[in-house]
Amino acid sequence: MEPAPGPQEKYHLITRNLQEVLGEDKLMAILKERELKIYWGTATTGKPHVAYFVPMSKIADFLKAGCEVTILFADLHAYLDNMKAPWELLELRTCYYENVIKAMLESIGVPLEKLKFVRGTDYQLSKEYTLDVYRLSSVVTQHDAKKAGAEVVKQVEHPLLSGLLYPGLQALDEEYLKVDAQFGGVDQRKIFTFAEKYLPSLGYAKRVHLMNPMVPGLTGSKMSSSEEDSKIDLLDRKEDVKKKLKKAFCEPGNVENNGVLSFIKHVLFPLKSEFVILREEKWGGNKTYTTYEALEKDFAEQVVHPGDLKNSVEVALNKLLDPIREKFNSPELKKLTNAAYPNPSKAKPAEKGTKNSEPEDVIPSRLDIRVGKVISVEKHPDADSLYVEKIDVGEPEPRTVVSGLVQFVPKEQLQDRLVVLLCNLKPQKMRGVESQGMVLCASSVGEPRQVEPLDPPAGCCAGERIYVEGYEGGEPDDELKPKKKVFEKLQADFRISEDCVAQWKQKNFLTKLGRVSCKSLKGGSIS
């Protein structure tokens, strides 16, 4: 039997791979006296995806360090966050989360009997908790409540009061769960500092806060439940995992915003303490890495090829997902999944010859709009008024796009520029060159006509999904059928606002980093 770890070893296990710790001295002082009591909470909203293995692997670390760990299924928070979980689905989604989180923990070998599982509504509707919510609301300013939730609560033009309550409830959870520390992503930092500021005003102790880095998604941005291409669902089939990993952003030698490398660092290495690159003998054969740093160095120096990295992650990831898929293959859990996350697009097909059938939804999420980076620009060989551009959209090969920007944007201003590309139009030949997308631009209303390419926020990565506010979910069509005129119908309501933001029916075009805009064409159209 291994000897129990000492305070220093416990501290290392608890804090390894974290981005930040608030209250390090207090943490060490507690570890010298007794075991740490810590909780991790998750709002029961969209389906958990593979990035949830990151906090799961840290929970494994906490247990190795002897911590008393509570997992909170924050069902009430899910409703307060702009009704991300409708009230009628709340119970079903919470039940889904309980089953899938427990299945994830079992797949990485975490003993469930050492964990405490709690639902928010088990105690958040009590008289005492409710009174504390009122007490807190009497000392918290609207400014501080809004600021605290800025990175976590869904931001909309006309925010609901519920979103302002959210940070206060999360702060009170620390007291009512009787813990020493709260663990979460670094996107929770403002809520954590809010708790540190306001809990003492109610006579409650300031807690320790432990923060994970935000792991890039497969497109290079934050992995998100609402951004389909950025995530691998826990129940995705093996062929879907292969397809999504194949499209993942993994540029040779580039270790920045590399979601594939990040998954190895934050999930696979902590679980196994090693990672095997699988490759054919003619390329050097398999190689086992016992430190992440050695793997990252070899990738940066292009000793490890992106294709081999992705294939190796695919094998390791499927080993984690297999027991989860098997568990959710039962009739009861299949029924629960379908009930908790009903498919809005699944309507009964109209019978042949039936009139007045329901028209299909023409909504912005059907458009596959992505951030693109222009790699090269040349004049069309047969048309001086057209450019032929090679644009990186996070796929293995750049797309060829023909645009009519010659008279509006000099060639050198397009080179290496981030643009907004509509990716699921049917490819069509333009003067003999097949165009695989459309660069979306703002156009002036009057004469002389002016055109400006739309600008994604600075810092975006090629391939990152662009969506319309309120339409983050939903899969885009594989290809827009020309006869259906989906793009044309939506485009009729595309406009540039008075502050130069791209909009559909006054709802902003967004990425995870902010709004899509143009330089100067206020009130213009988008085409």
TrEMBL record:
<dbReference type="InterPro" id="IPR051270">
    <property type="entry name" value="Tyrosine-tRNA_ligase_regulator"/>
</dbReference>
<keyword id="KW-0539">Nucleus</keyword>
<dbReference type="GO" id="GO:0005524">
    <property type="term" value="F:ATP binding"/>
</dbReference>
<dbReference type="Pfam" id="PF00579">
    <property type="entry name" value="tRNA-synt_1b"/>
</dbReference>
<dbReference type="InterPro" id="IPR012340">
    <property type="entry name" value="NA-bd_OB-fold"/>
</dbReference>
<keyword id="KW-0436">Ligase</keyword>
<comment type="similarity">
    <text>Belongs to the class-I aminoacyl-tRNA synthetase family.</text>
</comment>
<keyword id="KW-0963">Cytoplasm</keyword>
<protein>
    <recommendedName>
        <fullName>Tyrosine--tRNA ligase</fullName>
        <ecNumber>6.1.1.1</ecNumber>
    </recommendedName>
</protein>
<dbReference type="GO" id="GO:0004831">
    <property type="term" value="F:tyrosine-tRNA ligase activity"/>
</dbReference>
<dbReference type="InterPro" id="IPR002547">
    <property type="entry name" value="tRNA-bd_dom"/>
</dbReference>
<dbReference type="InterPro" id="IPR002307">
    <property type="entry name" value="Tyr-tRNA-ligase"/>
</dbReference>
<dbReference type="InterPro" id="IPR014729">
    <property type="entry name" value="Rossmann-like_a/b/a_fold"/>
</dbReference>
<keyword id="KW-0648">Protein biosynthesis</keyword>
<keyword id="KW-0067">ATP-binding</keyword>
<dbReference type="GO" id="GO:0006437">
    <property type="term" value="P:tyrosyl-tRNA aminoacylation"/>
</dbReference>
<keyword id="KW-0547">Nucleotide-binding</keyword>
<keyword id="KW-0820">tRNA-binding</keyword>
<dbReference type="GO" id="GO:0005737">
    <property type="term" value="C:cytoplasm"/>
</dbReference>
<dbReference type="GO" id="GO:0000049">
    <property type="term" value="F:tRNA binding"/>
</dbReference>
<keyword id="KW-0030">Aminoacyl-tRNA synthetase</keyword>
<keyword id="KW-0694">RNA-binding</keyword>
<dbReference type="GO" id="GO:0006950">
    <property type="term" value="P:response to stress"/>
</dbReference>
<feature type="compositionally biased region" description="Basic and acidic residues">
    <location>
        <begin position="348"/>
        <end position="358"/>
    </location>
</feature>
<dbReference type="GO" id="GO:0005634">
    <property type="term" value="C:nucleus"/>
</dbReference>
<feature type="domain" description="TRNA-binding">
    <location>
        <begin position="363"/>
        <end position="467"/>
    </location>
</feature>
<dbReference type="InterPro" id="IPR002305">
    <property type="entry name" value="aa-tRNA-synth_Ic"/>
</dbReference>
<feature type="region of interest" description="Disordered">
    <location>
        <begin position="336"/>
        <end position="363"/>
    </location>
</feature>
<dbReference type="Pfam" id="PF01588">
    <property type="entry name" value="tRNA_bind"/>
</dbReference>
